[in-house]
Design a protein that fits this description.
391 residues, four-stranded antiparallel sheet, ten-stranded antiparallel sheet, 33% strand
Length: 391
């Protein structure tokens, strides 16, 4: 009894893992392309600072050689000089969907790993035509023979189909569904809840799940929420489960909004134990009736860790609706990035975030583009008031 009491006392004083916090900029001016360093408390671990692949296409070549790292393939993507996302960009990648079926406008990269963070920006012009809408916009699949892959498939709200997130060939029998709207009859995996997993609710609309699809989540307003002629950002955190254990994790953001989150998924079984890699970062048009038109992609990023650095437009990560991923060159108590300003204005105020390997974001650290860390001042005392601008 005495040992048990002492053990409980010990547990009560063990501190919880601290969230990261950016405490100061230590060098550099926060402008596009500059190297900037900052000090961080509790940054967590990241075995390799640089991502597996990061591509802003600014070298004018769409190939397996990315801006940082490499892709396994770029499939049908080609370099584009039109429809640039912001004034600092001169290149992006494009693919044409011509209703020929089986069209591959995406990057593939990495090798099978337990965790992934992936993102890309995408744009479709005003003449792009949604049809059946069976466009796979993310797909994680093993490099081996396993079939326990999943894909992200929003569909526009048409008379013949409605928006959903779908998983293909998951070898699962657990049913996570709860609520009053049953999925279609059948067996398989239904990661659904009426109140939490209807994406329309995230955008302020009511949900009508009378005809939800099996393995799906309703998003009838997809084509309204993600309109033509506007650049949009998709981001994914994927964490494979242990074998036959419901501890897999998946989070999906659309333009900064968290539209899906599960932390109790079984993604690997004894018969299908493989982990995954980003098979499709972009769009796969699977048949002749899905869509016609051009797709544009920019700032594609994959890494086999959730640890990353982003700049956002709000003081908390969850409130950001504009985020720009930052290529990391040094990770640790002093972390260094090469600034990716993206579509932020040259003098815009923003917030710097470090997300650790558990997915926990730091509080936002206030920055202003064009300013930065105080320079080393030798003699005469430091100037008072105002902000340092590197002059």
């Amino acid at each position: 009894m005495r040992f048990a009491t002492l053990f409980l006392i010990f547990l009560s004083v063990v501190p919880a893992l601290a969230a990261p916090e950016i405490t100061a900029l230590t060098s550099g001016i926060v402008s596009h392309g500059n190297s900037v360093s900052f000090s961080v408390s509790a940054p967590g671990t990241k075995s390799t600072a640089a991502p597996v692949a990061w591509d802003n296409l600014e070298d004018g070549v769409c190939s397996t050689t990315a801006t940082i790292g490499t892709w396994s393939s770029v499939n049908a993507l080609q370099i584009s000089t039109v429809n640039q996302r912001h004034s600092l960009s001169t290149r992006n990648a494009t693919a044409a969907f011509v209703a020929a079926g089986d069209e591959h406008g995406y990057f593939t990269g990495g090798s099978d790993s337990p965790r992934w963070f992936a993102q890309y920006w995408w744009y479709i012009p005003s003449n792009f035509q949604w049809r059946g809408g069976n466009i796979k916009m993310f797909r994680f699949w093993s490099t081996g023979s396993g079939t326990n892959n999943w894909y992200f498939l929003p569909r526009p709200g048409t008379a013949t189909g409605h928006g959903m997130l779908a998983w293909d060939e998951m070898p699962l029998t657990s049913n996570y569904y709860s609520g009053t709207c049953p999925p279609d009859a059948g067996t398989g995996w239904y990661p659904l809840t009426q109140t939490d997993d209807c994406v329309d609710a995230v955008f302020g609309r009511s949900c009508n799940c009378s005809d939800w699809l099996a393995k799906g989540i309703e998003w009838r307003g997809f084509d309204t929420d993600m309109p033509h002629s506007t650049w949009h950002l998709f981001q994914v955190e994927w964490g494979d489960s242990d074998v036959d254990t419901a501890n897999g994790q998946l989070r999906i953001w659309a333009d900064g909004r968290l539209i899906f989150e599960k932390t109790n998924l079984t993604t690997r079984t004894t018969s299908q134990p493989s982990q995954k890699r980003p098979k499709e970062v972009g769009w796969y048009n699977s048949n002749t009736t899905d869509a016609i038109g051009d797709l544009y992609i920019d700032d594609a990023y994959i890494d086999n860790s959730w640890a990353r650095v982003e700049i956002g437009d709000a003081s908390t990560y969850a409130a950001c609706t504009h985020r720009e991923i930052q290529p990391i060159t040094v990770w640790g108590a002093t972390t260094t990035i090469t600034v990716n300003q993206g579509s932020f204005a040259n003098d815009a105020s923003a917030y710097l975030f470090l997300i650790d390997d558990t997915g926990a974001p730091s509080p936002g650290y206030s920055i202003t583009f064009g300013t930065g860390a105080p320079p080393i001042h030798r003699g005469g005392g430091a100037p008072s008031g105002g902000s340092w601008n590197g002059q």
